[in-house]
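Predict structure. Chain length: 120.
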Amino acid sequence: MGDLFTFWILRIFLLLVFVVCGFGISYDKKSRFCVYSLVSGLCYSLIQGLRYARGVDYMHYKFDMEGHWFVDNYEVGYRFIVIFLSQWLHLPYWGCFICYSALLIFAVLLVLKRIPQMAV
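Prediction complete.
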């Protein structure tokens, strides 16, 4: 019961952060965009990146980052990212997931910087 409660508390907290930061990005001064994007990006990256066993491919990605390669993996770009994060930077698999989440929210924030009205 505690895990489900924690899950929903974190989801509601993330929603509130997005609502507050969305209004800030849309209606506050342009100079505060970095503050709102940093807060929302950090919250999203940590909450989503540290959620264990999220999605159907979580264990596959975890095995890849631990060095258990699948023979049918021909994706060169993905393989480079995994090798870069897990072997060159020596990040644990959960650190790689935080990086993936940060890249996703960074891409969304780049769009919101151009079109701030979409943040609401």
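Summary: The CA atoms of residues 34 and 66 lie 34 Å apart.
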